[in-house]
Amino acid sequence: MESNNNNSGRDLQLYSSNFMEKMQNEFSSLVGEDVEFSSYQKVLARNMFIKITNQLSILEADRAIKNPNKLPYVWKNINLEKLYSESIHRVNLGLDAMLPNMISPIPYWNSKMKCYDLNLQIGYKGQEYLGKRFSIEQPKDIRYELIYDTDEFQVIKKDIENKIESYKLKIKNPFNRGNIIGGVGLIEYDNEEKNKVVIVPESEFIRWDQGTFWKNNPIDMRYKTLVKRTVSKLSLDPKKIENLALSYSSIQDIDKIENAEVVEIQEKDIQGSENIKFKDTDISEKNTVKEKEILETKSESKTKIKREF
After folding, report:
1. Is 98 helix (H, G, I), strand (E, B) or coil?
2. Count of Cβ atoms closer than 10 Å to residue 82 Cβ
3. Domain boundaries, the chain
4. C-alpha–C-alpha distance, residues 286 and 264, integer Å
5. Which end of the chain, C or N, has fewer beta carbons within 10 A?
6. pLDDT exceeds cutoff 70 at 148
């Protein structure tokens, strides 16, 4: 059994240096030449390390109380090579792990390697960011509305007589709107004839309405689900993402980024039947096993764009 004291200051400094060095090597391999990180990329890589370290500390504190005989959640028990590959992918997408709901590190027990794999799951804000920035045709705006049973709501679908898809919403009682019965997203373009309405019924929300976090935060969790369902209708342009890594060299230092809210996670054994849930979860999907697929080789990381919607 590994000791649980491997997140000391000296160890973290060593892992931080190694993390940045490995990330730099992955980036050079991706672009095909010896290229230094830009200042912006260094910030993203640093924030990724901080986010992972903070999450491991939370998990380890919980493990020490609930599962003291379990392998500790510390850096030396993480599959680092796999983590480096996934981390550079997130950095190249421009995702800042320290912004709320951008990235959630999710551990999986790897029975074969006897360590943890970390899936850097993209949160609903990260998915929205990617959809807006890298879609084949960038939307002018995206609207999201939860619909209550006292509202007057009408969808205006595109048809022969109506060229623009939209909706009408009248809130009759803003201070007591009743119960949520669904949600609507509207993707708007400069060419309004391309506008798209996305309907999410309450039955879709109920599918994920499990656990304490959903029960305690019904509005927030439904809103997050609505955002994910809406932006999933955007098609990403692989060329925009592939060219992004090369564009960072011209980006100057950025302002200090606000600290993130701590998210709580779910762990699942990738080969066994173990399924341990921690207090609450910010992961409103059950498809974390599917989303666990990442770029396994350097050549794949150069060409394959993973959709995580």
Report:
1. coil
2. 19
3. 9-129+238-303, 137-231
4. 15
5. N
6. yes
